[in-house]
Amino acid sequence: MINMNLKRLRQQYQYTQEDLAEKLGVSRQVVAKWEKGESTPDLYFCIKLAELYDVTIDNLVNYDEEKSGVSVPPKGKHYFGATTVGERGQIVIPKKARELFHIEAGNTLLIVGDEERGLAIVPQNYMQGFFPQNVLLNKKEDYE
């Protein structure tokens, strides 16, 4: 998996194998072997590559683009999968997302949107000071 991630990230950043080799202080052949899966970068180079591409080492090594449908996300960005909207507009937030963002039953979530970029779900406590206080006091019934 790491070999596919290395190739995809290099292409995404529009580096040639020579460019990447120069940045890391290795030969182009070493980079080619990593990308073909003939060898694997050691921990030192995994750290350097993760820093260069602004990804976590875990994602650099283990991320499966084919399974997720999206390329390796930058550090701090996550792809939790897809959910289906129910008849009344309900959605289920994936468990991993609830755990990471400490979302529990009874929490208030804000649905915000940008007509060009789409929707986002944000825990209300993340938005303190962002909106005037009266905007956050609206009840769920106001939106049904």
- The chain-level mean pLDDT equals 84
Strand order of the largest sheet: 1-2
List low-confidence stretches: none
What is the radius of gyration computed over CA atoms, rounded to a whole number of angstroms?
Answer: 21 Å
Strand content: 5-15%
Bulk shape: elongated
Number of strands: 2
User: How much helicity do the residues have?
Assistant: 25-40%
Reading the helices and strands in chain order gives HHHHHHHEE
Give me the number of helical elements: 7
Largest sheet: 2 strands, antiparallel
**N-to-C span:** 45 Å
Structural class: mainly alpha
Protein model, in words:
This protein is mostly helical and 144 residues long. 38% of the residues lie in helices and 8% in strands. It is built from seven helices and two strands. It has a two-stranded antiparallel ribbon. A hairpin with a 3-residue loop joins strand 1 and strand 2. Helix 2 packs across helix 3. The protein starts with a helix and ends in a 21-residue tail after the last strand. The mean pLDDT is 84.
Primary descriptors:
144 residues; 38% helix; 7 helices
List the helices and strands and how they pair.
Elements: H1 2-12, H2 17-24, H3 28-36, H4 43-53, H5 57-62, H6 65-68, H7 95-100, E1 109-114, E2 118-123
Short characterization:
The chain has helices at 2-12, 17-24, 28-36, 43-53, 57-62, 65-68, 95-100, and strands spanning 109-114, 118-123. With 144 residues, it is mostly helical. The protein has a two-stranded antiparallel ribbon with strand order 1-2.
